[in-house]
Fold:
Amino acid sequence: MGRKRISNDHWAAGALIVILALLIFFAPSYGWAIRAWLSPSSGGPVGNGAGASQTDDQTLTAENDALKAQLATLQVVALELPTSTSDAVRAMVYSRYPMNFRNELLVNAGSDDGIVVGAAVTFQGMLLGQVETVFPTAALVQTIFDNTLKMPVRVGTGGADGLLQGGSDPIVGSIASNATITPGDIVYSAAPGIPYALPIAQVVATSTSGDGFFQQAALSFPYDVNNVETVLIAK
Amino acid sequence: MLRLRSILAILILLLACALQFWFASAGTFINFIFATLIVFAFYFEIWELLIFVLFGVFVVNWQPAASTDIFIFGIIPIAAYAFHKVFSWSVWAAAPVAIVCGFIVLYLAIAPSAFFGDWELLLIDMLGGLIFGGLIFLVFDRLNLS
Structure:
């Protein structure tokens, strides 16, 4: 009896292993669904918080506040929803790189939608990254917050050349020491394959590089990459 | 007992997933799932461990293709299992060593630049993994599930 039980357990384990392996290779979207289910929701329902002991006025006030909060949430979502144009495709973020070695997003538009490797990806009109890998119905986007990203950019009205170095706190380095850059200057794209002058970030502080030959600029971004849910991909 | 242990392990793995994605959404990356799988290597047989590793890979994989990162993520807990079988150290000594070594190997293999250039990330990640792994040990030890 004991041997039969062990044998059954092994069969069950083997079957589970095969099923999981098949899911990993042929239906990874179910994994993303589990992930989405386990992740904190950014736009969940707003409770009104009204207890039974509250008066009608208090209940109405609470409901009003809740509705206002819900409206604000929806307005934010609406702002994040750009419409597709003939030269760009709107895509939703499926999943994100799960560890801290890279900063990549998987979006739901791929070669079937005309997406190609190297295409510019924007969020609210700002350059967020570049398409790294294309699948038929999805694409992997390397964001400017990825440690390995390096991209030529220009800074400010003088158009000083610099090199954007990705990371959790991206900086622009290799700026000529005689270039005039000041906090508040806009950093914009100047890389091959990407539309020229897409805004990327704003300079918040400048300093001299470690070797003393160049200037570098610390940047600020008007969005949190962890909350980006939709992007536009250039075709 | 076997069933209780397996159900508890599934719940712990789901909790690790939830914690990892919750922290990630706040911009902090702590590899709770990886630490959990390394700890499981000391409590489960290879078949059970394979199921948990594949589940972890299934949830963590972020793209519709195989990648070196995910392969390394999955193979290290299996290596911890082999380590446990070959060297019969006490679980209390071997598991923290395995977690620390696992994180170091993970960083060196996937992003050596992060290991050498941004070691604070590794420390936070490893510390989070050690604490969570320690809690799993406590649970398994208190419930006498080894």
